[in-house]
Amino acid sequence: MLPKMANIQPMEPENENQGEFGEYDRPSKSAVKRDMLALQDLGKTLCEMPYDKVKRAPIGERLLIEIAEFHKCKSFGAKKRQMQFIGKLMRDEEHEEVQAWVNGETVEQKLKVLHLHAAEQWRDRLIEEPGLLATFIESYPAAARENLNPIIRQAVQERAAKKAPRNFRQLFQIIYRLIEEKAEADET
């Protein structure tokens, strides 16, 4: 006679998520590594920027000091080690805010770009049609105190004679300053 077989039943998982695949409590190693490499790339971008600009970035004092140290490094190996250390320090920073600043997504930077474009457009329009000066003065009343007619006339002459654009630049600077002043006055 054959021995009696034990009734074998499959083991039940201790908790309901134990038997399912794909549900983890933490990110995978690959995801962590991608995040770390992204932070190193952000640190590299900061290091490649002029230091005077980086000083205005929304970063901590320690990171700013280490970026200054990066600029002092001479050898490739030293720069690489410093870059990795900067990537490690980036973990402690508000990297979304820093990334937004690097991308130029801050409100101040966007406004500055808009003002620069507006100044370029007004300059070009005034040189092509000097009669638009009255419209410009209506839009920017502070322009009435500036003597723009001679500057516009000289900029037109410079362009026709293919001379250095001294008055062309001066006109742009005046227009840009007027646009900035009006924007500041509108804020208050």
UniProtKB/TrEMBL annotation:
Q: Where is the signal peptide?
A: none
Chain positions covered by the region annotation Disordered: 1-28
> Which UniProt keywords are given for this protein, alphabetically ordered?
Cytoplasm, Ribosome biogenesis, RNA-binding, rRNA-binding
A single GO molecular-function term is: rRNA binding
Q: What Gene Ontology cellular component terms go with this record?
A: cytosol
For this protein, the parts annotated as crossing the membrane are: none
What's an example GO BP annotation here? ribosome biogenesis
Q: Which CDD domains match?
A: YjgA-like
Q: Which PANTHER family match?
A: UPF0307 PROTEIN YJGA
Can you say what this protein is called?
Ribosome biogenesis factor YjgA
Which species is this record about?
A: Limnobacter thiooxidans
